[in-house]
Amino acid sequence: MSVKVLIPTALQKFANDQATLECTGSNISELLESLEQNCPGIKARLCDEKGEPRRFLNLYVNDEDIRFLDGTKTSLNDGDQVSIVPAVAGG
């Protein structure tokens, strides 16, 4: 199963300067492991010590925030698109 992952500019250095990657996984957790295999070091930037997405990152599956779905257990289907979106703050 192939899932398209959109990589934000700040993390593209871990993805050989690519903005999109094709990865595999039946859920977000497996996808993060696949992403780490393809791009060593990226998971530490995306996840905390427990393997959960960091607070300042938002993950979307086909425009749906995984926080409102099943979190890292959110199921993925062939052809889905996962967007990694850093939170923006300021004042």
UniProtKB/TrEMBL annotation:
Coiled coil: none annotated. Keywords: Transferase. The keyword Coiled coil does not apply. It comes from the Bacteria. CDD domains: Ubl_CysO_like (cd17074). Pfam families: ThiS. InterPro entries: Beta-grasp_dom_sf (IPR012675), Mopterin_synth/thiamin_S_b (IPR016155), Sulfur_Carrier/Prot_Modifier (IPR052045), ThiS/MoaD-like (IPR003749). Its EC number is 2.8.1.12. GO terms for molecular function: molybdopterin synthase activity. The keyword Nucleotide-binding does not apply. This is Molybdopterin synthase subunit MoaD. It comes from Crinalium epipsammum PCC 9333.
